[in-house]
Design brief:
The chain has 337 residues and is α+β, with helices and mostly antiparallel strands. The chain has one domain: Glucose Permease (Domain IIA). The chain has eight helices and eleven strands. The longest helix has 13 residues.
Length: 337
């Protein structure tokens, strides 16, 4: 059986409940769930309060769980990148105390560092631009099943809360190719069911640092269509050329990782070509394990260029574009007190 045939069969096989919520392996899931509430020596526990309830959108979530595209061919964006984040060393916060999205509004929460696409589980998600799959992580405490793509020239993207990967680590894919089926894997999907809308939490990482793909006023957008992401429509492909890193900078970032046990584990278990990508991932998921703020930038002598490169990571046959949940009437994004 060819890889292409295997991928097509996997695309059409329904997701199981453990896949949707990312429950396996069960022992690891329980251990990671405890970290949310207790933390570990280098990761503070997460923070919640009544303002966290704002991300619960039953009018949007229940229909989406039932497989309905609540915005039709328009994907609702539930939460955007927060440009006024609380200090991460105080713990991951789902509270709404100081927030500002790229529009100058409040469709986000304290520690939110990505874009949330509300999508029925089992939807195909695609490569936002040509790239190579450099990592697959299953972390119940922080995003569930996650795929990490390198797109060259210092740009990475991440796909979180997935149900099933359709490609393997090391695979190179072109823009618009299927890479995974969506779910709502992770602790928030399970504990918030059915009031939290299933979504793909999607990140852009440029120069080793999490960034907003939407551009502020006067800032370049990473989307090909200025702040209006559209699916790949057959335009000329940008060829993939892997991001490379000087060995001395890899060593410097390893030395910045304060968790000696985790450092040894990465060096022992990760092939050399993947190690710098795993270090960037580690620094974006668990930044308090590093001495330097935004430690991923250590790998880059100069910051990579910010320019339009990305398409909407979903198929043109399924969706036309995106809308904002507050504008669509699915969520009230109140100004923090």
């Amino acid at each position: 059986m060819s890889d292409q045939t295997r991928t097509i069969m996997t695309e059409h096989q329904p997701l199981s409940i453990p896949e949707v919520f990312g429950l396996k392996p069960y022992a690891q899931t329980l251990q990671q769930a405890r970290m949310v509430f207790k933390g570990d020596p280098n990761v503070p526990p997460s923070r919640f309060d009544t303002t966290s309830l704002g991300i619960m959108t039953p009018r949007l979530s229940i229909g989406t769980w039932m497989g309905i595209k609540m915005g039709g061919r328009t994907i609702p964006l539930l939460s955007l990148f927060n440009h006024n984040q609380t200090p991460i060393r105080e713990g991951w916060s789902t509270r709404v105390t100081q927030v500002r999205d790229f529009r100058g509004r409040y469709l986000t929460y304290d520690s939110h560092n990505g874009t949330d696409f509300v999508i029925p589980p089992g939807t195909i998600t695609t490569a936002a631009t040509s790239g190579r799959l450099v990592s697959i992580r299953q972390e119940f405490n922080r995003g569930g099943l996650k795929l990490y793509m390198d797109h060259g020239q210092g740009l990475m993207t991440t796909y979180n809360h997935l149900g099933r990967a359709l490609i393997n680590i090391g695979d190179v894919v072109e823009e618009g190719e299927p890479i995974a089926l969506t779910g709502y894997s992770g602790i928030d999907g399970l504990t918030g069911f059915p009031w939290l809308a299933p979504h793909v939490h999607w990140n852009a990482i440029l120069g080793g640092v999490l960034v907003d793909p939407f551009g502020l006023d006067g800032q370049e957008s990473l989307w090909r269509q200025r702040n209006d992401p559209k699916p790949y429509m057959g335009q000329e492909l940008e060829p993939y050329s892997a991001t490379t890193f000087p060995q001395e900078r890899i060593e410097a970032m390893l030395n910045d990782l304060q968790d000696a046990q985790r450092r040894e584990e990465l060096v022992r278990s990760v092939p050399p070509w993947r190690l710098p990508f795993e270090l960037i991932i580690e620094a974006t998921v668990y930044p308090t394990r590093f001495a330097t703020h935004d430690a991923g930038q250590i790998l880059f002598e100069t910051p990579p260029e910010r320019r339009p490169r990305l398409s909407l990571p979903f198929r043109a046959e399924d969706f036309d574009g995106v809308g904002f949940a507050d504008d669509m009437g699915f969520r009230t994004a109140a100004k923090p007190q």
